[in-house]
């Protein structure tokens, strides 16, 4: 079997189509787990260390020790990917507290750790011709969004509300403060400077988000963690969203309002190019 | 195999120990599902209709149509339980959106519906000698707690925070308003009247909770849905919590403060007895 059809689970490799967990796995009954999505470019893992650090933070946030240390896990994932024949794709990794008779109290059991690969189309060198459309929805999620937990039902409902309205992604707004999107972080360009909400109760520490903070100074762009309101977002010169799978997508529309010049803006383009350069240099 | 060792899943009965779901089940990857816990007394299901109505409401709340109609489901559960040899126990039922390659967008797939039985010790005719201890924690959950979803990670974390502090249950407080507990509703007796927070964004429509509203008038007790603060709760004459598995448990302590007379109060006792009578009459 090819690696894209197989799955690593607790040290074993099994066909993905046969990969099952007990219905008493706490990931299934309690959403008691965390996850990561790691990009593969040119057959190589991108930003793996940053993803594993975030995994450790998320797991610590739910008092779930990693069943293997980060170095061993890195080696297992790397071996798995190096045997894969996929130039462009991703690793989906999930860690749950494991299998035990249903009870809220933490059981004494072995965690479930699994990962598998999926192919993805390669990212283009230039930003897409079409921007994404956002639908704003009330941020009704819990207050520990910095934990990348599998309790994703609120995100799923928001995303589908956006899709049903003809938009591509839902953007969360709480007390007129724009937090993040259902599966991405949001950035606004206002008067040449880059703004995004600080990470914390309502914002995930996105890996692509952090990379842009690393890259912005070299482009002489000020990047500022600061909350902003919905009207500021709509009036921004440029808006874009970031995630591991989409990198950077420029925003063309917010509900029924066009954003900026209805094309990918100059600062978004610079950041897009810098990020592509970074990806190329690290996955050559 | 006896029925307590078996599980009904999508119309099939399999041994519980072999009951597995795909790792791509949306219950496992997205917490995209809902559940119910239904009590069995004297071999009979208690308040089954109310639980199935709530299941339908929860499922509608996440836009998930039941894969079988409520009447068929009722018949399947009843058949399953009538074959069981458990006088006292519960049915755990879970419904998820089903198996599909991981993507937030709702897939076109068949939901996963399963249920199984667990034995429980019979409930005593008198309230327990010992009251429960509550630990108050900030209510950081999402705002659709009226949906009995499997996205229970916030409840699991709160419950374990309480256990680690030597308490039995966590009580959620938001902006000094007491909402509910991690796996139960909370009632306060103040000047002879019964108070509990209205159901809605932060409170599940508990089945036992609703039963008490039915029973209170016949005991000449006023039952009022009205939010109250933490200091009012601590100063209450009596406090108790309700859930399907515990029915009514009187509260002895709130953090380090004793509640009431440090024994099960007279109004709690009346409600406890009325609820036991109701259970007996409906499961004779």
Describe this structure in words.
2 copies of one chain form a homodimer. Chain A has 284 residues and is of the alpha+beta class. Chain A is 26% helix and 30% strand. The first copy, chain A, has 7 helices and 16 strands. The two termini of chain A are 27 Å apart. The model of chain A has no long low-confidence stretch (mean pLDDT 96). The interface between A and B is large, with 52 and 52 residues. Strand 3 (20-22) of chain A pairs antiparallel with strand 3 of chain B, so a sheet runs across the interface.
Quick structural overview:
By secondary structure, chain A is of the alpha+beta class.
What order do the helices and strands come in, and which of them pair?
Two copies of one chain form a homodimer.
Chain A lengths: L5 E4 L2 E4 L4 E3 L3 H4 L3 E9 L2 E2 L2 H14 L8 H13 L6 E8 L15 E8 L12 E7 L14 H12 L4 E6 L2 E5 L3 E6 L2 E4 L10 H9 L7 E3 L4 H5 L3 E6 L3 E8 L2 E2 L7 H17 L2
Parallel strand pairs in A: 8-9, 8-15, 12-13
Antiparallel strand pairs in A: 1-2, 1-7, 4-5, 4-6, 6-7, 9-10, 11-12, 11-14, 14-15, 15-16
Derived structural class of chain A? alpha+beta
Number of strands of chain A: 16
Q: Identify the CATH architecture of the largest domain in chain A.
A: Alpha-Beta Barrel
From the alpha-carbon coordinates, what is the Rg of chain A to the nearest angstrom?
19 Å
Strand fraction of chain A equals 25-35%
Which spans of chain A have pLDDT < 50 for at least 5 consecutive residues?
none
CATH class of the largest domain in chain A: Alpha Beta
- Do you know the CATH topology of the largest domain in chain A? D-amino Acid Aminotransferase, Chain A, domain 2
Tell me which protein chains meet in the greatest interface and how many residues each side has: A-B, 52 and 52 residues
Instruction: Tell me the major beta sheet of chain A.
Output: 9 strands, mixed
How would you describe the oligomerization state of the chains in this entry?
Answer: homodimer
Helical proportion of chain A, percent range: 25-40%
- Overall, the morphology of chain A is globular
Q: What is the number of helical segments of chain A per DSSP (H or I, 4+ residues)?
A: 7
The fourth-level CATH homologous superfamily of the largest domain in chain A is: D-amino Acid Aminotransferase, subunit A, domain 2
What is the mean pLDDT of chain A? 96
């Amino acid at each position: 079997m090819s690696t894209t059809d197989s799955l690593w689970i607790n040290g074993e490799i099994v066909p993905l189509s046969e990969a099952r967990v007990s219905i008493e796995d706490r990931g299934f009954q309690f959403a008691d787990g965390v996850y990561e999505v790691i990009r593969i470019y040119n057959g190589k893992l991108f930003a793996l260390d940053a993803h594993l650090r975030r995994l450790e933070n998320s797991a610590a946030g739910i008092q779930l020790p990693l069943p293997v240390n980060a170095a061993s896990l890195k080696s297992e994932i790397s071996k798995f990917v190096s045997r894969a024949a996929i130039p462009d794709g991703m690793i989906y990794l999930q860690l749950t507290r494991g299998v035990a008779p249903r009870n809220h109290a933490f059981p004494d059991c072995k965690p479930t750790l699994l990962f598998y690969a999926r192919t993805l189309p390669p990212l283009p060198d230039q930003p897409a011709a079409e921007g994404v459309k956002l639908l704003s929805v009330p941020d009704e999620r819990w207050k520990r969004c910095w934990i990348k937990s599998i309790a994703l039902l609120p995100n799923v409902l928001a995303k589908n509300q956006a899709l049903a309205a003809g938009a591509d992604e839902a953007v969360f707004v709480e007390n007129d403060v724009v937090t993040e999107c259902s599966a991405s972080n949001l950035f606004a360009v206002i008067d040449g400077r880059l703004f995004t909400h600080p990470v914390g109760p309502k914002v995930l520490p996105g890996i692509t988000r952090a990379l842009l903070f690393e890259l912005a100074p070299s482009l002489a762009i000020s990047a500022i963690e600061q909350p902003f309101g919905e009207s500021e977002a709509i009036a921004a010169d440029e808006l874009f969203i970031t995630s591991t799978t989409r990198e950077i997508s420029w925003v063309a529309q917010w509900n029924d309002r066009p954003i900026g010049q209805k094309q990918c803006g100059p600062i978004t383009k610079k950041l897009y190019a810098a990020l592509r350069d970074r990806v190329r240099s690290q996955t050559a």
